[in-house]
Specification:
Blueprint lengths: L2 H17 L3 E7 L9 E7 L2 H17 L6 E3 L6 E5 L3 E7 H7 L1 H4 L4 E3 L6
Parallel strand pairs: 2-5
Antiparallel strand pairs: 1-2, 1-6, 3-4, 4-5
Helix pairs in contact: 1-2
């Protein structure tokens, strides 16, 4: 996947999360510190139904662009759903688990970027 495609995927995922009223959407550029992915997107929802709706919307919007996740974890419990698209990994939490796992702290060596940085 090209860097341009990764940026497009991250942008599309951010907008899909925002469309479902995701809270505190963060984009971390981890390309210089990890081979796992270029970007982590982290967001939270207030309940199981919202978290699942956010994930459903991301999958739908990325599918329209021809992208299918390599792996989806945690959908049924919806405490923490992980969508692995290779170059971008999307983490959608309920609020309690986001605070508990605190990925922003764990990946603090990554660069927090804005949606505008993906243009």
């Amino acid at each position: 996947m090209t860097p341009k495609q990764s940026k497009q995927m991250a942008k599309t995922a951010w907008k899909a999360l925002d469309d479902k009223k995701a809270r505190d959407i963060r984009i971390l550029d981890i390309s210089t510190i990890s081979v796992l992915a270029d970007y982590f997107l982290i967001a939270s929802g207030s309940n199981k139904n919202q978290v699942q709706a956010m994930v459903d919307n991301v999958q739908e919007e990325l599918h329209k662009l021809g992208f299918v996740p390599r792996q989806v974890e945690g959908y049924h419990t919806a405490n923490w759903i992980l969508l692995d698209y290779g170059d971008i990994i999307i983490h959608v939490f309920d609020e309690e688990n986001r605070l508990f796992y605190d990925l922003e702290r764990i990946w603090r060596d990554g660069t927090s970027i804005s949606l505008d940085d993906l243009e």
